[in-house]
Design a protein that fits this description.
Radius of gyration: 46 Å
InterPro entries: Aspartic_peptidase_AS, DNA/RNA_pol_sf, Integrase_H2C2, Peptidase_aspartic_dom_sf, Retrotrans_gag_dom, Retrovirus_Pol_polyprotein, Rev_trsase/Diguanyl_cyclase, RT_dom
Structural class: alpha+beta
Largest sheet: 6 strands, mixed, barrel
Pfam family, one: RT_RNaseH_2
GO molecular function, one term: RNA-directed DNA polymerase activity
Protein name: Reverse transcriptase domain-containing protein
Shape: extended
Keywords: DNA integration, Endonuclease, Hydrolase, Magnesium, Multifunctional enzyme, Nuclease, Nucleotidyltransferase, Protease, RNA-binding, RNA-directed DNA polymerase, Transferase
Number of strands: 34
CATH architecture of one domain: Roll
Strand content: 5-15%
Number of helices: 39
Strand order of the largest sheet: 4-5-10-6-9-8
CATH topology of one domain: HIV Type 1 Reverse Transcriptase, Chain A, domain 1
CATH superfamily of one domain: HIV Type 1 Reverse Transcriptase, subunit A, domain 1
């Protein structure tokens, strides 16, 4: 059987079918993948064609511009190289076109589209400083500065700025600048280019500076030194910034130099104000300077208004009529007018009047004109020189000091201080001698240099004996100097100098620098207009600013000198001066010795008043933060701050890091921070530890009670208050608790190594440290309340010892004080909101001012703040509880509604604070006296010793207690005050005075009621005696318990015993009752008062004096009306005021019929007023002939 054969044609057919199917599948897949690529390729081709079209257009533009340059080059001696320039021309080719917007150095044209992504970005217009085709964007229009020969530096700066913006090549700079020369500069350049046709830009600038520049054009530092404040503040700031910009471009100087330069250039009356504000940068200095200028303008404005009103006030009346029995007035002829001063520019008086010029200074005269430049000419006779000078030496002076005439050296000094005059501006400067502030005078009329003996003593210099010299002053007097300080170093306006100064007691200055010192620092140049003195020191020139004149205060008695000063344009302040108490004033030598003793102690412990050099040591009392059980770490996010506040935070944190007070932290604790502004406008960084404090176990350490501290000051006469510097930061943190103080800011995470502010137990820790280091001296001569230390002594000698002990303790424990906040060796000091002196304790006037300026409360919170501040001084104010009751009722829930009653109580409480008493300090060796009283509305009491109040107590009664009987109210008052002041009364007998006679025998009465049982239990253990005092004489306690609308009538037969120690009643007021004798008008008033015919209580009686509408009635007997008019007009109190002022003063206090007419008559008959006050009547006209009579 033959073998089976295959079919080749069939297999091939199958293979071909498979291949075709495969090829079709591959083609389909390829086409599906390649189709998007075709689309993108097509888009790229289209974009490329567009790029080629744009490129062709740009090539055409370049060829056109090249032809333009070629045509332009044919007209120029040298053709510039071909530079592609792209841009637009604003008005190019037009007349007057001076600016264009150009972009030079165009990059080569290239296709920016290299991928589909680039094409998409190109179509969407994305990019930074290039457009879709790779060219830089157009710049804004900018004009090239023109130059006419003035202000070379400004022209150079503006030109350089233009070249920098438009990237101008060097070859075009000179030509571009030359085309903008105008005026004198153009004429100069035409001549200049004949020698140098096309100079480089720097060469042109130097040539322009040589031709048109000033002396200071090449020295911006010299320009900076000459900028001073003359006109408006804005003009000064503008000029300062202009010169500062030039200085920055040439030198590298720190910002402190510019701040110092700005402050040095300010006017004298503004510079000290701005310096006290402590600006840290120029912007702060600008702001403070504007505010100071505005304040000064307001003061000058009000001064002119006051002067104008004083000059226009009528002060002349008709001549008095002759009165029988009265000596006629003697009238004196008018004083001859003063001759006019020297004329100005040979102008006559009439010409100056027509030109409206001042007769005295020659300046333009206005309604409120004041002469700015006042001169005082001091003429000194020049005596002949030769042998006669030796004969002029005072023989008694030589004999007194045993001086040989042949060894005496003669010196002259031109210092002369005429009294009651203000001299012309002298060369005086502020300086220091070993940190002691002084006033120095550069006197070219003095042959030698001198120093005042007080300066020598205060800084403890050791002058050496020297050959004696006799110094002759300009006033003709002679002084002896036999001591000398060799090579003494002193500072004048931050510049150190050295000189040989003789000790001499000259008046007015601490240092006088004469010709011997001037020869060492010469040559000396003086600019009298700007008040600048240029000296030479170590080969360098130094400028000193002359200190301005200090305003002088004069005291006038009478109106003659006052009127003269007003005519001169002086500022006048009219005030009433009252002498409350005459005190012995120690002599100058005693004050000097005291000051020297305290200065010696301060110098001995100078390290205590310096900055802390290092971290404080670890002590037994390091601050700990005990955490409550199971409390998680406090981790809060920081608060957000402005950019300016972040800069302040960075500065403060950097200072804390350098001092070692904080360090970087990795603690799980994190608290936010706060910025708190200080009084000096600087910032304090505080950490908000409220969340941490909630989880801290509180320390129950006892904080001193302020009243208990003040009670220890009896008998003290000399006081020193020391304020510690950074007291909390002088205590270290307990190492295991450091991580709990961590805080977070935008810079990072930090923690405190010392005790920070804001921790709940920090005050207790600090008080514990102070009590431990001062334990042997507490309540003996030292009181400590946190960082306020008070040292008190009965005498100066003891106080010096006590001060030495206290400073030694601070030095041993590495605690430091701030000298500027310390009061050393004073007789009156502010401590814990009180004014403490030998007389006792008074309120702080600054706190009282805050109470008076307190706005009307709008909410319970504001009202609670007002009552909290006034309540701090409630023991100084009588009737405090009753007055404040309408206000305290508003603190109840949903009870705040401001009514007329609350308004009245608010005003009365403010007024009561103004008349607060000066409380005496308790003397525990003497018995105490308590006076009590009760009324329907409240109870009151006063604690006294020797008729001087120690404290007041006033409390309003609630509804329940108001229903008690009189006996029970009086007993409640007695028990309340004894409980309040029990710490004063323990250990000795005391007296209780009451106006309820049944309480006098309280200890002998039978106890029946529960209130009596309760009251007597509180009185057990006390040694007291109850005395009865009639209610009419118990005026102090009685007033404390009554409201102002109580109609309590006080008897006129009061005893001489008076406890109203704060009211000063003149004796003549009490004697006014004598003027009521045989006065018909007074009798009529008394009858109307008794019969009740007085309407609306117009007529009343108080303490024996009749009052008409609240004013005291004055009768005719004993001439009391004339006495009062003389007292209120002719005495120092009245100051011979005008009729209207005198009438208002009399009307506000007293009343009698026709009081206004009596005032007018009294002033018309006042000799002083009639003689001294000018008569304001118009100048009479020309004389005219009498008319011819009609009939003879």
């Amino acid at each position: 059987m033959p073998p089976k054969q295959s079919n080749p044609s069939g297999s091939d057919q199958n293979n071909s079918e498979i291949s075709s199917h495969l090829l079709a599948a591959i083609n389909g897949a390829f086409e599906s993948q390649v189709a998007p690529l075709h689309e993108e390729l097509k888009a790229v081709k289209e974009a490329s064609s567009q790029i080629e079209q744009v490129g062709g257009r740009m090539n055409n533009l370049e060829s056109m511009f090249a032809k333009f340059l070629q045509i332009h080059a044919e007209k120029q001696p040298e053709a510039p190289p071909h530079i592609p320039i792209r841009g637009t021309s604003d008005g190019f080719g037009k007349k007057g076109a001076t600016s264009a917007r150009l972009i030079l150095d165009t990059p080569p044209l290239e296709n920016p589209i290299k991928s589909p992504d680039d094409f998409k970005k190109c179509k969407e217009g994305k990019g930074s400083d290039h457009n879709s085709f790779g060219y830089k964007c157009n710049l804004p229009r900018l004009d090239f500065p023109s130059f006419d020969g003035s202000d070379v530096l400004t022209w150079e700066e503006d030109s350089e700025f233009y070249f920098e913006v438009f990237q101008t090549p060097e070859i075009y700079k000179t030509r571009l600048a030359a085309t903008h020369f105008v005026g004198d500069a153009r004429d100069w350049y035409r001549r200049f280019k004949l020698n140098k046709p096309d100079p480089p830009w720097l060469v042109l600038v130097e040539e322009v500076k040589d031709r048109f520049g000033t002396i200071d054009s090449d020295n911006p530092l010299e320009q900076f030194r000459k900028v001073i404040h003359i006109g408006k503040m804005e003009d000064y700031i503008k000029n300062f910034e202009k010169v500062k910009a030039r200085l920055i471009n040439t030198t590298k100087i720190q910002n402190e130099f510019y701040l110092y330069g700005f402050l040095s250039g300010l006017r004298e009356e503004l510079r000290h104000t701005v310096e006290m504000c402590g600006p840290n940068c120029l912007n702060q200095a600008y702001r403070f300077a504007r505010q100071a200028e505005l304040s000064l303008e307001c003061q000058e404005k009000w001064g002119r208004m006051l002067l104008k009103s004083a000059a226009s006030f009528p002060n002349k009346f008709d001549r008095p009529r002759d009165i029988p029995g009265k000596k006629p007035l003697q009238f004196y002829p008018p004083r001859p007018a003063l001759p006019p001063p020297a004329n100005f520019n040979n102008l006559t008086r009439e010409q100056m009047r027509q030109l409206r010029l001042c007769y005295y200074c020659g300046e333009k005269y206005t309604q409120n004109h004041r002469c700015q430049k006042r001169k005082i000419l001091l003429l000194e006779a020049i005596e002949s020189s030769g042998t006669e000078e030796v004969d002029l030496i005072d023989q008694q002076l030589r004999e007194q000091f045993d001086i040989d005439t042949e060894e005496v050296e003669h010196a002259d000094i031109s210092v002369c201080r005429p009294q009651d005059q203000c001299g012309t501006q002298t060369l005086k400067f502020k300086g220091t001698v070993q940190h002691l502030p002084i006033i120095a005078l550069i006197d070219s009329g003095s042959t030698h240099s001198f120093i005042h003996p007080s300066v020598v003593s205060l800084v403890q210099l050791q002058p050496s004996p020297s050959p004696p010299i006799i110094v002759k002053t300009a006033s003709g007097s002679k002084l002896l100097s036999d001591l000398k300080c060799d090579a003494l170093k002193f500072n004048l306006q931050q510049h150190e100098f050295e000189g040989d100064l003789r000790v001499l007691e000259v008046q007015g200055y601490d240092l006088i620098l004469g010709m011997d010192w001037i020869a060492k620092v010469g040559p000396m140049m003086i600019d009298c207009v700007k008040g600048l003195v240029q000296l030479s020191k170590d080969g360098h020139n130094i400028q000193l600013q002359v200190q301005g004149e200090v305003a002088e205060v004069k005291l006038f008695q009478g109106s003659i000198n006052v009127n003269q000063e007003i005519q001169k344009g002086s500022d006048i302040i009219i005030a009433h001066l009252f002498l409350a108490k005459a005190e012995f004033t120690p002599t100058a030598s005693v004050n000097h010795n005291i000051l020297l003793a305290f200065q010696t102690v301060v110098n001995q412990f100078g390290i205590v008043f310096s900055d802390p050099p290092s971290l404080p040591p670890h002590r037994l009392i390091d601050h700990q933060i005990p955490h409550t059980a199971n409390s998680p770490p406090v981790n809060l996010r920081p608060y957000r701050f402005s950019h300016f506040q972040k800069i302040e935070i960075e500065k403060i944190v950097e200072e804390l890091l350098q001092s070692g007070y904080i360090r970087a932290s990795t603690s799980p604790f994190a608290s936010p921070i706060l910025l708190v502004k200080k009084k000096d406008q600087s910032w304090r960084l505080c950490v908000d530890y409220r969340k941490l404090n909630d989880n801290t176990v509180k320390n129950k350490f006892s904080i001193p009670i302020i009243d208990d501290l003040l009670d220890k000051l009896k008998g003290a006469r000399i006081f020193t208050k020391i304020d510690l510097k950074s007291g909390y930061h002088r205590i270290r943190m307990h190492p295991p608790d450091i991580h709990k103080t961590a805080f977070r800011i935008h810079l990072g995470h930090y923690e405190y190594t010392v005790m920070p502010f804001g921790l709940t137990n920090a005050p207790a820790t600090f008080q514990a440290l102070m009590n431990s280091i001062f334990k042997p001296y507490l309540r003996k001569f030292i009181l400590v309340f946190f960082d306020d230390i008070l040292i008190y002594s009965p005498s100066v000698e003891e106080h010096v010892h006590h001060l030495t002990v206290a400073l030694q303790v601070l030095q041993d424990n590495q605690l430091f004080a701030k000298l500027s906040k310390c009061d050393i060796g004073v007789s009156k000091v502010e401590y814990l909101g009180h004014i403490i002196s030998e007389e006792g304790v008074a309120t702080d006037p600054s706190k009282i001012e805050g109470i008076l300026n307190w706005p009307i409360p709008k909410s319970v919170r504001q009202l609670r703040g007002f009552l909290g501040l006034t309540g701090y001084y409630r023991k100084f104010v009588k009737d405090y509880g009753v007055i404040s009751r309408p206000l305290t009722d508003l603190l109840k829930k949903d009870a705040f509604k401001w009514t007329q009653e609350a308004e009245s109580a608010f005003s009365k409480l403010q007024q009561a604070m103004c008349v607060a008493h000066v409380l005496a300090l308790p003397d525990f060796t003497k018995p105490f006296i308590i006076e009590t009283y009760a009324s329907q509305y409240g109870i009151g009491a006063v604690l006294m010793q020797g008729k001087r109040p120690l404290a007041f107590l006033s409390k309003s009664l609630g509804i329940k207690n108001q229903s008690l009987s009189t006996y029970e109210k009086e007993l409640l008052a007695l028990v309340t005050v004894v409980t309040k002041w029990r710490h004063y009364l323990l250990g000795g007998p005391f007296i209780i005075r009451t106006d309820h006679i049944s309480l006098k025998n309280l200890l002998e009465q039978r106890i029946n009621t529960a209130m009596q049982h309760k009251s007597l239990s509180k009185l057990l253990g006390l040694q007291y005696t109850i005395e009865y005092k009639k209610g009419s004489t118990n005026v102090v306690a009685d007033a404390l318990s009554r409201k102002d609308n109580d109609t309590l009538q006080l008897s006129s037969s009061s005893t001489s015993e008076n406890y109203m120690v704060s009211e000063l009643i003149p004796q003549w007021v009490n004697e006014l009752q004598e003027s009521y004798q045989d006065d018909k008008w007074i009798k009529r008033l008394r009858r109307q008062l008794l019969e009740g015919h007085s309407r609306n209580n117009i007529i009343s009686k108080h303490q024996g004096l009749l009052r008409y509408k609240g004013r005291i009635c004055v009768g005719q007997a004993h001439g009391w009306r004339e006495k009062l008019l003389h007292e209120l007009h002719g005495s120092n109190l009245g100051g011979h005021s005008g009729a209207l002022v005198t009438y208002k003063r009399v009307k506000s206090l007293f009343y009698w019929p026709s009081v206004k007419q009596h005032v007018m008559d009294h002033i018309k008959h006042c000799d002083i007023c009639q003689i001294t006050k000018p008569e304001h009547v118009p100048t009479p006209g020309l004389l005219q002939p009498l008319p011819i009579p009609q009939e003879a």
